[in-house]
């Protein structure tokens, strides 16, 4: 591979990053749902695929593969969408591929969508890793920087101008990570010709999960009327038994649309309504949205129907689930609906056999069943935003979420520069725009274990946290730290201190007897310095399922259990003071890159990658149900 190829790919990434920063977010990103005025057509499924294996990865652009059917450009293979492409074939080169890959699918667009000029047709990709360019019938319709978040394009014009209701969708995706992407990475050229062939390069990263790539979430076509509801922002509070829902609706395509908002209870009864694009709905005898195991009727959702009627009489209808709840932080507590909430939960990954990070309903439902089985009331979306469908599940089941952006592995001082910061700010804008209305989301996490002791980190986190707060003043903001408390330069700006530590694993391996002392010191130091509530946002140990030893040794199920027990003893003292949560690392085993410290992936799961429990899962299950019964407002049976 010639060095200029990857450099050019990196350059394209950079240009696009700058471009999206200049554009500041104007439009909304409502989840596509059907309604009397909207149709959705899922065009996921079987696509065709071609990796650009040319030495410079640039042949696809040079030969304009988007101009003709991909199969005419060279050999193509089947590729499921959504899915990572890495584990689908038997080819290690596809598994480890860096650079541009091309996807294509021919779909039919209903004739009436095309004929009715009052219909707006939108193409939406749930997420693709990391940088994507989209064409319809050979015409470029949009590009997007960053994985984990949706992007879309109005394709009505292109469809009406080109070949009618036939629609060839081409998506080129590049997984290259640079110092300015999120997460960051570097491309390293190996120049020693006695060890590496000409042009040999590797992608370096500083995070501990496999860098899966491809189209990871569903691809949808959907319609709205020309004058349409573009965005809705809801904020909720309550006083005594009155719930207050303030709303702000933005309509595009009409400057004089009449907006009507109606809120219905779960039995369909209308409980409040208002005219106008902004206002406050009052709900008497409110049913609050409570977390799972905090109330006997958790996760109560109202349904807010918004209607926007344009001058020509066309009405757009969009329905949004609304949970009424508040979140507050004091110096020792995390309050949901003014009651102390203790996070007893998990850290997850979007990760599974074969599909990698591809969205998969059976996996999502199984994971929620497992979380509820073990009595988990919360999870952190380590280390990037999860699919919207997962947040909707959390809303419906009362599982509380710390919503994290992919600021993971920021270890190089060059990733604290202005270009990186601008992209990070834009990413937070896109994340808040997408997730702001979910009652399950109670806190934003802007990064995981950055090198927060480096001098630029102070300015960087001050900007990042304050910008996020300006986007959403109703939720606390944090980042996850692993650095020494005294040298952490970002901690003064966050609302909650989230600390990861691996005593008896990365530090003093094998010495579980030290956990009590070291963990107590950790908590007292952080609290002493900042007087902010603390979440143990990661702790754990690898356990190879089926490996046993007593007395415990590292990598056995017994050792994982012993580490957990020692941590729990300290949590039980400190949760009476200022510790407000514990999140095990990790919910399930997950894939990583190959290295001498990983045996086919990270084994810190309390479930295997196939979601079978290890001994630690039963320990946590006992504990979480016990804590729920101590801290919830009601008694639950395990
Ligand atoms: C933590 C990281 C997490 C890793 C974990 C580990 O935040 O991503 O997977 O260590 O090494 O520091 O297991």
Automatic annotation (TrEMBL):
Protein name: Beta-glucuronidase
Subunit relationships: Homotetramer.
Domain Glycoside hydrolase family 2 immunoglobulin-like beta-sandwich, first and last residues per copy: 227-325
Keywords: Glycoprotein, Glycosidase, Hydrolase, Lysosome, Signal
Endpoints of the signal sequence: 1-24
A Pfam family recorded for this sequence: Glyco_hydro_2_N
GO terms under cellular component: extracellular space; lysosome
Organism field: Cyprinus carpio
Ways its activity is controlled: Inhibited by L-aspartic acid.
Residue ranges constituting the Glycoside hydrolase family 2 catalytic domain according to the UniProt record: 327-628
InterPro entries according to UniProt: Beta-gal/glucu_dom_sf (IPR036156), Galactose-bd-like_sf (IPR008979), GH (IPR017853), Glyco_hydro_2 (IPR006101), Glyco_hydro_2_AS (IPR023232), Glyco_hydro_2_cat (IPR006103), Glyco_hydro_2_CS (IPR023230), Glyco_hydro_2_N (IPR006104)
Superkingdom of this protein's organism: Eukaryota
Coiled coil: none
Family membership: Belongs to the glycosyl hydrolase 2 family.
Enzyme Commission (EC) number: 3.2.1.31
Protein's cellular compartments: Lysosome
Cited function: Plays an important role in the degradation of dermatan and keratan sulfates.
Glycosyl hydrolases family 2 sugar binding domain ranges (all copies): 41-225
Catalyzed chemical reaction(s): a beta-D-glucuronoside + H2O = D-glucuronate + an alcohol
GO biological process: carbohydrate metabolic process; glucuronoside catabolic process
GO molecular function, one term: beta-glucuronidase activity
């Amino acid at each position: 591979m010639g060095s200029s190829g990857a450099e050019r790919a990196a350059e394209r990434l950079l240009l696009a990053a700058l471009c999206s920063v200049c554009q500041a977010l104007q439009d909304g990103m409502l989840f596509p749902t059907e309604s009397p005025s909207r149709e959705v057509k899922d065009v996921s499924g079987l696509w065709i695929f071609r990796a650009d294996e040319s030495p410079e990865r640039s042949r696809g652009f040079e030969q304009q593969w988007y101009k003709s059917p991909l199969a005419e450009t060279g050999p193509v293979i089947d590729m499921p969408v959504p899915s990572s492409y890495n584990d689908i074939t038997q080819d290690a080169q596809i598994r480890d591929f860096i650079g541009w890959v091309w996807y294509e699918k021919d779909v039919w667009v209903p004739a009436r969508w095309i004929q009715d000029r009052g219909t707006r047709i939108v193409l939406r990709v749930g997420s693709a890793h990391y940088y994507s360019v989209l064409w319809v019938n050979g015409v470029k319709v949009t590009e997007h920087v960053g994985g984990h978040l949706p992007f879309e394009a109005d394709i009505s014009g292109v469809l009406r101008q080109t070949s009618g209701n036939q629609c060839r969708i081409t998506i080129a995706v590049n997984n290259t990570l640079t110092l300015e992407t999120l997460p960051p990475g570097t491309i390293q050229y190996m120049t020693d010709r006695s060890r590496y062939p000409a042009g040999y390069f590797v992608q370096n990263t500083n995070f501990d999960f496999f860098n899966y790539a491809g189209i990871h979430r569903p691809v949808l076509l959907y319609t709205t009327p020309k004058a349409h509801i573009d965005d809705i922002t809801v904020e909720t509070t309550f006083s005594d038994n009155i719930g207050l829902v303030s709303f702000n609706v933005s309509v595009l395509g009409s400057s004089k649309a009449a907006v009507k908002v109606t809120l219905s209870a779960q039995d369909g009864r209308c409980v409040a309504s208002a005219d106008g694009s902004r206002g406050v709905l009052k709900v008497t005898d409110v049913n609050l949205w409570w977390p799972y195991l905090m109330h006997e009727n958790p996760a109560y959702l109202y349904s807010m129907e918004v209607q926007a009627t344009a001058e020509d009489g066309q009405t757009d209808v969009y329905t949004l689930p609304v949970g009424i709840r508040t979140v507050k932080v004091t110096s020792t507590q995390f309050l949901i609906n003014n009651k102390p909430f203790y996070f007893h939960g998990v850290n997850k990954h979007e990760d599974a056999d074969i599909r990698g990070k591809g969205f998969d309903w059976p996996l999502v439902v199984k994971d929620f069943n497992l979380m509820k089985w073990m009595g988990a009331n919360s999870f952190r979306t380590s280390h990037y935003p999860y699919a919207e469908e997962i947040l909707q599940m959390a809303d419906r089941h009362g599982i509380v979420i710390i919503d994290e952006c992919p600021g993971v592995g920021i270890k190089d001082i060059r990733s604290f520069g202005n270009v990186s910061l601008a992209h990070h700010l834009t990413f937070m804008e896109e994340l808040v725009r997408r997730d702001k209305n979910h009652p399950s989301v109670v806190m934003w996490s802007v990064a995981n274990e950055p090198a927060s002791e480096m001098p630029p980190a102070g300015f960087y986190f001050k900007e990042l946290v304050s910008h996020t707060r300006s986007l959403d003043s109703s939720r606390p903001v944090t980042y996850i730290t692993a650095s020494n408390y005294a040298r952490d330069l970002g901690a003064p700006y966050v609302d909650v201190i989230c600390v990861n530590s691996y005593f008896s694993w990365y530090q003093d391996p094998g010495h579980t007897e030290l956990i009590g002392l070291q963990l107590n010191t950790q908590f007292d130091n952080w609290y002493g310095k900042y007087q902010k509530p603390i979440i143990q946002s990661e702790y754990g140990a690898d356990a190879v399922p089926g490996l046993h030893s007593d007395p415990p040794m590292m990598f056995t199920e017994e050792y994982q259990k012993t580490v957990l027990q020692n941590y729990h003893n300290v949590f039980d003292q400190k949760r009476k003071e200022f510790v407000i949560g514990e999140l095990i690392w990790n919910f399930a085993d997950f894939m990583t890159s190959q290295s001498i410290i990983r045996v086919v992936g990270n084994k810190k799961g309390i479930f295997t990658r196939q979601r079978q429990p290890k001994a630690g899962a039963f320990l946590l299950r006992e504990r979480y149900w016990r804590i729920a019964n101590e801290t919830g407002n009601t008694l639950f049976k395990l």
